[in-house]
Write a structure and sequence with these properties.
homodimer, about 350 residues, alpha/beta, 434 Repressor (Amino-terminal Domain), Rossmann fold, six-stranded parallel beta sheet, six-stranded mixed beta sheet, 12 strands, DNA-binding, membrane (chains A, B), LacI/GalR-like_sensor (chains A, B), transcription cis-regulatory region binding (chains A, B), transmembrane (chains A, B), transcription regulation (chains A, B)
DNA sequence: TTGTATGCGTTATCAC
DNA sequence: GTGATAACGCATACAA
């Protein structure tokens, strides 16, 4: 027993012998080099197919200097958005010769050492970083040193670093405006953690909509959450423990998860949604439409984001290889969509 | 520009020169070979550390014949259980020198060619197959040919193939028994797709509990689902379109997703849960406790399953390397737990 | 167009 | 214990 599988693996040498050509020719055929006699190519291809030969990826990598592996640096997959993003990633990858090396990391601490190791091994030829948080700065350094990199979402990334995301300000603006148009005047906002740019941007959009409607954002209606369900519960408890006339008539949560927390508490306290309080989320996680009531929320095209990001990354790899590295800055902003469902409606005092 | 990063990568050769030893010695130090002079080892380690040298993974792989990559073959990550499993996988991996190559595949068709390609590239030194479905048979073949393989859940796998899963029969039995003890006599079952072994096993457990209670399973109360939310909706519509006295007083769904569908329809038709109908699911997906009402369900330790599976796989790789491949069959059955929440209660006719 | 020879960075097999 | 040197399987510059 020598490797994983018992029967000795075929090498390019074997195919060369079997087809009566040299290793070089087989290699050329495998790499679609144009300069090879059609009849020879045919013969080689036949033997390759006949014996089911597949070139050893490790050797290819060593000889060519670049692997067909793409690193994906991501938060734990249990974050609701990540599987959706990965679905898009997988979809694009499936039609490509690349595979995914998944670096699932908890980004709480600064794993810059981990990152160094990953990249120094020269195991992946490019990196897709999903919400890299504090690791961003290290990545951007490496990017400027030549690392093919695409970032998804949120960061205050240097303009040159290719990234895909959404327009958080406008999306939040649209959501808030929707509530205003329903007649709401007291709209609370549960904000995400401040070290996320998107938290600040969504808050901006919220404020802008309010101010446009002649409403000064009320600090008492701004709650600080952490994007987790529990934080939504805490914020809801804070709000609903106040005298009834101090309640908002609507709550705009910076993500769906915190909105779930609000719904939990509302249920427990007998606060009816949307009759007593309207609720709007952000993200449109998979289950948000199955909640009771179904959650009105801003849909993020996560799957598309993953898809486009990988597409971008692979294009970069190709163009890098053909030496025509372009210098323009790439920032894909994908459109979001407000999904109006049952958790929102006119304020109670406008109900007939 | 020659690679990803501009400055030329250090090689083992460079370190050897800098430390005044030969490549071989550096290699020995890197691989923790005992036979090397402590003072030399010290010197080599210092230069390695000083220059931040990290051996090239590709070259190591080619020379040694085995990579530090583990393949994970999995259904789309949007299946609710998968991220949970992957969390356990990632947790174990993080403490190991291995990395994960994620093969996210839709298992609808028989991608045995994909599998062949994956394995022939000899890029991964072991494979964790999560719910491989129809691909199983190919995998077991490869296993017997020497592929280090661990399977998670469900399959009718040959006894020799190491796998981790749960006891579906007993878990379903427990859930059904719980409903019986509440006083239910007409308990419907929404079954999963029949080509999943777990669907059949859960049905078995359901039947056994019923029969033990002297109840013959009623074919009219057996609905065929597909594990998707929509199928749960269809089944619920079927049930609730019957005359009220033909309704079940409880529904045991073979997974949580289908239970969500039931809740959707119940909400729409004004059927109260649990007052009119009790509902019990299976899986305990992350959001099941946040539904209204929170779903009573059988908790599967998905994260543990992923953790244990990788642990098993890495142990196999180690023992394979030291030629002591054991021949006993390994089947880890992890315990499940019935989580009783608000979606279940006594039948309406027993309510005070 | 095709074959030969060398290199990729490491491990493993020898002698010493 | 240590250092040359031959694999590992493929890509590629160079020669033919």
């Amino acid at each position: 027993m020598q490797g994983s599988n018992t029967q000795r693996k075929l090498t390019i040498q074997d195919i060369a012998r079997l087809a009566g050509v040299s290793k070089a020719t087989v290699s050329r055929v495998l790499n679609h080099r144009p300069s090879v006699n059609p009849s020879l190519r045919e013969r080689v291809l036949r033997t390759i197919h006949e014996y089911g030969f597949i070139p050893n990826a490790t050797a290819t990598g060593l000889a060519s200097g670049h692997t067909r592996l793409l690193g994906v640096l991501a938060p734990p997959l249990t974050w609701p958005a990540i599987p959706e993003i990965m679905r898009g990633v997988a979809e694009y990858i499936e039609g490509s010769p690349y595979e995914i090396v998944l670096y699932s990391i908890s980004f709480e601490r600064n794993h810059s050492d981990v990152l160094d190791r990953i990249l120094s091994m020269s195991m992946v030829s490019g990196l897709l970083a999903i919400l890299p948080g504090g690791l961003g700065r290290y990545l951007y350094q490496r990017f400027h040193l030549g690392l093919p990199l695409v970032v998804i979402d949120d960061q205050k990334v240097p303009a040159q670093v290719p990234r895909v995301g959404i327009d958080n300000v406008n999306s939040a603006y649209t959501a808030t405006r929707y509530l205003l148009e329903l007649g709401h005047r007291r709209i609370a906002h549960i904000q995400g953690p401040l070290h996320y740019l998107c938290s600040q941007e969504r808050y901006q959009g919220y404020c802008r909509a309010l101010e446009e409607a002649g409403i000064t954002p009320d600090p008492n209606l701004l709650l600080q959450g952490s994007f987790e369900v529990e934080s939504g519960q805490r914020c809801a408890e804070t709000l609903f423990s106040r005298p009834r006339n101090a309640w908002p008539t609507a709550i705009f949560s910076a993500n769906d998860q915190m909105a779930y927390g609000v719904m939990d508490v509302a249920e427990r306290l007998g606060v009816r949604i949307p009759e007593d309080v309207s609720l709007v989320g952000f993200d449109d996680n998979m289950l948000s439409s199955h909640l009771r009531p179904p959650l009105t929320t801003v849909h993020q095209p996560f799957s598309d984001m993953g898809f486009k990001a990988v597409e971008l990354l692979l294009n970069m790899l190709d163009s890098q290889h053909s030496k025509q590295q372009e210098e323009c800055s790439i920032h894909l902003q994908l459109p979001t969509q407000l999904c109006i469902r049952k958790s929102s409606g006119p304020p109670y005092y406008l109900l007939s």
